[in-house]
Write a structure and sequence with these properties.
nine-stranded mixed sheet; 12 strands; alpha/beta; 4 helices; three-stranded mixed sheet; globular
């Protein structure tokens, strides 16, 4: 069953667009784990694996293969098969210098590493991306936005607000 892991023509909930050609897949291809909602990194949180990773147009696609020997994974597969769960989300590791500010004050992520892809019940956007710092720590949406707020990166109205808060 195919899933869209990323559509580089779409902004995600972090306000960024991820370029498929810039996603390093080498680590992921060696261990293409499917987690449940980015939950945990123990073997028990693995509910399947991803196969047939490919780019078609602006989309990064993969096929979901659930571990049907695991009752929990089998139950999630059932929800997917019946159309109750449709979302997935990439776990990415990125470096700040690979974010490019665009004229419309959005960002383009030009290079990152894919570490996992999770089945999620409610993506924060139709193609949500879960981000991790180089240390492996999960980054919240607010932490992500703060990490991008160098004075030179902020639009003039935000620079004034930032100065007023200091």
């Amino acid at each position: 069953m195919p899933f869209v892991l990323n559509d580089e023509s779409q902004l995600n909930s972090y306000g960024l667009r991820t370029i498929n050609a810039g996603i390093d897949l080498s680590r992921f291809n060696e261990n293409p784990v499917m987690l449940d909602s980015h939950w945990g990194y123990g073997a028990g949180s693995v509910i399947g694996k991803w196969t047939n990773l490919r780019i078609e147009g602006s989309k990064l696609l993969a096929d979901a293969e659930f571990d049907t020997e695991d009752d929990y994974a089998k139950a999630i597969k059932g929800k997917v098969d019946r159309g109750f769960v449709k979302g997935c989300s990439m776990g990415l590791v990125y470096k700040r210098e690979n974010m490019v500010l665009q004229p419309d004050n959005t960002y383009t992520l030009i290079a990152c590493e894919l570490t996992e892809v999770s089945i999620v019940s409610i993506p924060s956007n139709k193609l949500a991306v879960k981000l991790f710092a180089e240390t492996g720590k999960e980054i919240s949406e607010s932490e992500f936005k703060l990490s991008l707020q160098d004075e030179g990166d902020l639009p003039p109205s935000n620079q004034n607000q930032n100065q007023n808060q200091n």
